[in-house]
């Protein structure tokens, strides 16, 4: 299997194969041994998965090796056809990056990507349309709610539950035939594992290990697809702070699989060549209607605004320099009585979005919803959909060392530049909104597109 290290390079508008990383396939026997050794050869059961994979036997009336070979040959032929279609998709996207853009404009009944919010609008559009036409996802059916196929759809981790729910009801991308799938979804919810199994007094994080190792063991025993790619064409998704930790316990899940995470922190081994970042969206009540909108630029009387708790490494510096110290840069740890958080966002020019305990912050999506230009203060954070979106065109990015000069930085921005940025915030909004059911180009489809790009980044047959 080869992994193309430059496939996701929208910045250079191409999907060229510049270099490859060869991943050696292990025998399934060796792979199973590494997973089961810590359990002394015993099968570990956990909520939602109770069947022993060893009980699944080929019909003894027919020689098993003949049945296995025939099935393998059919799978190999389907895989070759699948990879051939992906090769054609790669070529078409590569062409879009090399040809005069004016000759490649594609019609679209809903929306045609355009403008500075994209690294390359034509390349993105070509890739998106190919994704809609070709991409297929198989969801493993093993596991039962509330830990699998289910999640909370309100609070700060809402998008994890919403994605799980949307995938279960999706008919466009989901396939029931695993041999037609380009990727395989591991439908566990880290939020629900913590909510159901984690004891806040004992604080035994091993519940993550038992649940996730057990689940991967089950699907690796029951299906051939995990071993075929060492998990490279499998993905998990989590918005929980412990989402990255949840993948530690299975080496291939951590180092090889596609991890779709809110906390996309490169200092914690998030790898943007194979992992995908998605936004943290705090749906306080679970309602998704009426969240967007704000005052026009001329009526935004507050220069910059932030309200939130002091935690993490960045916010103490913000509070030290700006907490309730300036009439234009309004920074609060606790919002004064009588002020509405939503209204303050909607009448501010700039909304300050500092990282807290983790790099991701729901304030980025809140700012975009309020049509307020986000001021990003973070370290080691891979921004959501950054292989497609040009974040520099609609945000201000400030380093921690520049926090004392925050007001000067914002005041130096000319009015006409601010107005253009605010218009781009309104344009990019469509890629962050949650719809039920999902609509084209919304946050659900942007997450799917991020996974599609990572799948284009390798060929299982090579």
TrEMBL record:
It comes from the Eukaryota. Residues 72-99 form a coiled coil. The keyword Iron does not apply. GO terms for molecular function: glycosyltransferase activity. One of its GO terms (cellular component) is Golgi membrane. It is found in: Golgi apparatus membrane. InterPro entries: Exostosin, Exostosin_GT47. The keyword Transmembrane applies. Residues 132-410 form the Exostosin GT47 domain. Belongs to the glycosyltransferase 47 family. This is Exostosin GT47 domain-containing protein. It comes from Lithocarpus litseifolius.
């Amino acid at each position: 299997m080869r992994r193309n290290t430059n496939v996701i390079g929208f910045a250079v508008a191409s999907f060229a194969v510049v270099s490859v990383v060869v991943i050696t396939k292990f025998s399934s026997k060796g792979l199973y041994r590494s997973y089961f050794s810590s359990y002394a050869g015993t099968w570990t059961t956990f909520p939602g998965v109770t069947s022993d994979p060893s009980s699944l036997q080929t019909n003894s009336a027919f020689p098993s090796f003949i049945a296995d070979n025939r099935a393998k040959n059919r799978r190999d032929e389907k895989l070759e056809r699948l990879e051939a279609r992906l090769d054609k998709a790669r070529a078409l996207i590569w062409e879009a990056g090399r040809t005069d853009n004016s000759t490649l404009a594609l019609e679209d009944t809903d929306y045609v990507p355009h403008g500075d919010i994209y690294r390359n609008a034509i390349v993105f559009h070509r890739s998106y349309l190919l994704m809609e036409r070709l991409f297929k996802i198989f969801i493993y059916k093993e596991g039962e709610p509330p830990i699998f196929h289910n999640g909370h759809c309100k609070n700060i981790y809402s998008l994890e539950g919403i994605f799980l729910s949307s995938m279960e009801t999706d008919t466009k991308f989901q396939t029931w035939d695993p041999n037609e799938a380009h990727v395989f979804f591991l439908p566990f919810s880290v939020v629900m594992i913590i909510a159901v199994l984690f004891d806040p007094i004992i604080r035994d994080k091993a519940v993550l290990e038992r649940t996730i190792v057990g689940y991967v063991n089950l699907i690796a025993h029951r299906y051939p697809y995990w071993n075929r790619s060492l998990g490279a064409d499998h993905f998990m998704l989590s918005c929980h702070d412990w989402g990255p930790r949840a993948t530690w316990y299975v080496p291939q899940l951590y180092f090889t699989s596609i991890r779709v995470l809110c906390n996309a922190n490169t200092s914690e081994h998030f790898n943007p060549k194979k992992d995908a970042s998605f936004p943290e969206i705090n749906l306080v009540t679970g309602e998704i209607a009426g969240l967007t909108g704000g005052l026009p630029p001329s009526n935004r009387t507050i220069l910059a605004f932030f309200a939130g708790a002091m935690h993490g490494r960045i916010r103490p510096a913000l509070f030290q320099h700006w907490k309730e110290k300036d009439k234009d840069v309004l920074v609060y740890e606790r919002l004064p009585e009588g002020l509405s958080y939503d209204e303050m966002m909607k009448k501010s020019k700039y909304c300050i979005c500092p990282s807290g305990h983790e790099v991701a912050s729901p304030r980025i999506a809140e700012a975009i919803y309020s049509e307020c230009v986000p001021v990003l203060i973070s370290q080691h954070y891979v921004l959501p959909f950054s292989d497609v979106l040009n974040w520099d065109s609609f945000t201000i990015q400030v380093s921690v060392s520049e926090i004392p000069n925050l007001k000067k930085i914002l005041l130096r921005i000319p009015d006409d530049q601010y107005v253009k940025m605010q218009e781009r915030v309104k344009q990019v909004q469509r890629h962050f909104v949650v719809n039920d059911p999902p609509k084209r180009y919304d946050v659900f489809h942007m997450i799917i597109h991020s996974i599609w790009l990572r799948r284009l980044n390798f060929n299982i047959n090579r």
